Amino acid sequence: MFNKRDDFPSFREVVDLELDFISRGSDEGPFILRKGLYADQIKMYYRYFDADQILILAFRDLVTKPNETCNRVLEFLNVDGPACTFNIEPKNQREYPNKITSDDKKILDEFYREPNRELKELLGRELNW
Fold it and tell me: How many structural domains comprise the chain?
């Protein structure tokens, strides 16, 4: 879809394109918004596994509390052994040249409002975004 362009579209162009596809009931991509509909994805797993067989973690917890999060995984898997002790230094950090605009944030907040409410209800808790 985007490979015929000389430059990659802006975030807003991709969001607007996907919102148009969604409004028309199309299953065409891009899928950056629909990939964030986590409740729908988790429900598919719940069709095959009991909720207590699935550990759902937030990426931010892995980044901000890697040892604690890793230890949660080990405990969930019932793995005996030494506790996780990562000493993680930030790598490849940089400033993004184009920050998300307040208008873009409003669009995302509106799009995800109901799906995130559904996700919270499904999990019985909010995730650390």
Answer: 2
Whether 7 is in a domain gets the answer yes
Amino acid identity for residue 66 in this structure? P
**Per the domain annotation, does 95 fall within a domain?**
no
**Do residue 45 and residue 4 come from a single domain?**
yes
> What SS3 state is found at 53?
helix
Interval 17-61: pLDDT, tens:
999 999 999 998 899 999 999 999 999 999 999 999 999 999 999
Domain assignment of residue 19, yes or no: yes
Separation of alpha carbons 74 and 55, rounded Å: 11
In this predicted structure, the answer to whether residue 3 has a pLDDT above a threshold of 60 is: no
Residues 41 and 61 in one domain: no
Say if residue 30 is preceded by a cis peptide, omega within 30 of 0: yes
